[in-house]
Every structure is written in structure tokens, then in C-alpha cells.
């Protein structure tokens, strides 16, 4: 007998809840410290129900890291590398990226954990690395566009893009305290200087 729409919605909500609590647990207790039992208790569902959605802890961990990348790519990649006004496009991109990074402390903690132990989590790291490479390539194109128009100083565009994403991660990890939340918006002009705008 096929599932009703209500049953499908409830299953989707349970899966989302599992993913949410698992993200928090993996970020705070690490991979070893997180168990399916802890996840089921935090999600307030039965132990066996977790296996309706995920084969084991390894798959759950993989999904917690990789599934958000789809939404993140829609948001982080949403700028035009070939913009007629690359400086304005950079400013809009930076402002958008800062807002995104400001809101993803828990997930970013997991990303840093995986990057720091990439040989231990090779399949998850590969997904993250591909995502990061695509983002760097797109940012590099925008930087080259600005350089070709004589609006940005000549420098290695890929290195600048790498410094930029490293800066975003660094700001997020160094400003976990709520005292700094009001400062995020003021970083845009300082971050823009990283790209070497030529002021005439």
C-alpha cells in the first residue's frame, strides 16, 4: 500500500530532524563521540527508525556533510563572473557570502574537522574539495574579468580566490561569540581590498 501524502511529509520531517541533530552532535562530539543511539534520543525517535533513512553512522555522516552542498552552491555560486561592472559584482558577492558564512557555524565546524582529517574521511573530503574548487574557479573568473577591465591590480586570481575563502572561514571561526555578529556587515569594504581594486 503506497504512503499517503501526510505519511510522506512526516517521514521527510523525521529525516530532517535526524540530520539536524546529527549535524550538532558530529560538530560538538566528533565522529567517534556521536552514536546512532545519541542521534535517536536527541531527535526523539526510536533507535530503529534512524535506519529507515540511513544505513549506518558512516552514511549519516556523509549525508550531513554533502547534502547541504546543493543549497550552498545555489547561494554561494549566485554571482556573475562576466559582469559588466566586476567591482559592484564583487561587492554584492562578498556581502552575500558574508551573510551565508555568518549563519553556518555548526556546519563549518564539521567542514574544518574533515579538512583537518582528510585522510580519515576521503570520500567526504573529495566532495568538499570538488565543491571548493568549483567555487574558487568561479571567483577567479570574476577577478580576471576585473583585471582585464583594468579595475583590479594584476595578481594570481586563483591565489586571491583561495585567500578570500580562507578569510571567510577564518572570520566565522574566530567570531563565534555573539558580540561580533554586528561586525559582519562592516567587513565588506575591507574584504574587497583583498582583490586589489584600483581607485582612480
Plain-language structure description:
The structure is a single chain. This protein is mostly helical. It has helices spanning 5-33, 36-43, 47-53, 57-66, 68-76, 86-102, 105-116, 122-148, 157-174, 188-192. The protein folds into 2 domains: 5-65, Homeodomain-like (Arc Repressor Mutant, subunit A, Orthogonal Bundle), CATH 1.10.10; 67-195, Orthogonal Bundle (Tetracycline Repressor, domain 2). It has 10 helices and no strands. Residues 35-54 bind DNA. This is TetR/AcrR family transcriptional regulator.
Give the helix/strand class: mainly alpha
Strand-residue proportion: under 5%
Total number of beta strands: 0
Q: Judging by the overall fold, what is the CATH architecture of the largest domain? A: Orthogonal Bundle
| Unreliable runs | none
Main beta-sheet strand count, sense and barrel state? none
Q: Helix-strand pattern, N to C? A: HHHHHHHHHH
Through-space gap between termini: 70 Å
Overall shape: it is elongated
What would a concise description of this structure say?
By secondary structure, the chain is an all-alpha fold.
Please specify the SSE layout and strand pairing.
Layout: H1 5-33, H2 36-43, H3 47-53, H4 57-66, H5 68-76, H6 86-102, H7 105-116, H8 122-148, H9 157-174, H10 188-192
